[in-house]
UniProtKB/TrEMBL annotation:
It comes from the Bacteria. This is N5-carboxyaminoimidazole ribonucleotide synthase. Residues 102-285 form the ATP-grasp domain. It is an enzyme of class 6 (ligase). Keywords: ATP-binding, Ligase, Nucleotide-binding, Purine biosynthesis. It catalyses: 5-amino-1-(5-phospho-beta-D-ribosyl)imidazole + hydrogencarbonate + ATP = 5-carboxyamino-1-(5-phospho-D-ribosyl)imidazole + ADP + phosphate + 2 H(+). Belongs to the PurK/PurT family. GO terms for cellular component: cytosol. ATP binds at residues 98, 138, 143-149, 173-176, 181, 204, 255-256. GO terms for biological process: 'de novo' IMP biosynthetic process. Pathway: Purine metabolism; IMP biosynthesis via de novo pathway; 5-amino-1-(5-phospho-D-ribosyl)imidazole-4-carboxylate from 5-amino-1-(5-phospho-D-ribosyl)imidazole (N5-CAIR route): step 1/2. Its EC number is 6.3.4.18. Catalyzes the ATP-dependent conversion of 5-aminoimidazole ribonucleotide (AIR) and HCO(3)(-) to N5-carboxyaminoimidazole ribonucleotide (N5-CAIR). Catalyzes the ATP-dependent conversion of 5-aminoimidazole ribonucleotide (AIR) and HCO(3)- to N5-carboxyaminoimidazole ribonucleotide (N5-CAIR).
Amino acid sequence: MKIGILGGGQLARMLALAGYPLGLDFVVLEPAPDACAAPLAGHIQAAYDDPAALEQLAELVDRVTYEFESVPASAVEQLGESLPVYPPANALATARDRHHEKTLFNELGIETAPFAEVHDLAGLKQGVAQLGLPAILKTRTLGYDGKGQQLIHPGDELEAAWQAVGQVPCILEGLVNFDREVSIIAVRSVSGEMAFYPLAENVHRDGILRLSTCLHEDSHQPLAEDYARRMLEHLGYVGVLAIEFFQVGEHLLANEMAPRVHNSGHWTIEGAHTSQFENHLRAVLDLPLGSTQPLGHAAMVNLIGDLPDTKALLGLENVHLHLYGKAPRPDRKIGHVTVREASVDELQARLSNIDNVLQ
Ligand code: ATP
Ligand code: MG
Ligand code: MG
């Protein structure tokens, strides 16, 4: 079986790494010449919406998936005419646009922060009158790692905020004073089998995910699974779906979803019986899903910007290093480490060892 992946970054690379033991082969479609998945897969170097490249990909592979949600809808449409593309196009269309995804969350009875659509400066003023400040102005599409967002405090100049996000269609969101940020990695196969990983608690720094810790028997797990199940079933979803939440007391407010494998699920590579990458592949191939049970107490630390002291990291027991083969650059995710320990205390101690190396 050959799988086509739109996008050739680290998520595609880790999908390929998980797929080889299952006897799978991969071809990535990715415009960048130095795509970090390319050494592990066939590489068609072209724009995602290049009809000839898409035709070539469709001839080479048996089914197609993707590693990011900003894939042009036209690409998914063209590929979908000749072979299965998962997750389905409706999931992509919803998840790539913050307004669509938040509207759908609410329609399905899933709470979110209050939000308003913003098309222009007048709309921003209206939104602020409706929601109050502080609030966050976010571009509807293409944002990641906190890019395309502007926090607006009381008294701030609204015109400046509107300029800062590039005067494109946006949503304004009330700022949530959350207790924690958590995410659920859910998976549904072609024939409708579903599985859910334990919630991860996520800590961000400068808008970029820095630490994800697997939570054991958290009291919010049933609600998160219920919300994820509603979304999977509504979309007739196939593959891994990640939903990020703000936890406020007993409530979970959905922040966003990603129709793909997700950074907050990287701990599953060594921290769960079956990784999110393997389960995504099993789901799109309609194979039985693997167990999502955690192995010990696991966490993941992102390596951001500079190349770390890899010798020191590998010198730590129970630390697993994943470098993506990407050139270091400020704010760029170039790898991660997974830690797995027998107890919460040992996990915390190991995480502070890692912090000392990364400082
Ligand atoms: P990602 O890299 O996860 O795709 P993104 O650029 O799509 O990020 P968000 O997830 O919307 O952006 O926001 C990034 C982070 O900013 C959140 O994880 C959270 O820490 C903070 N944040 C975003 N929106 C809100 C909000 N309404 N209230 C409080 N904090 C928020
Ligand atoms: Mg996002
Ligand atoms: Mg996010």
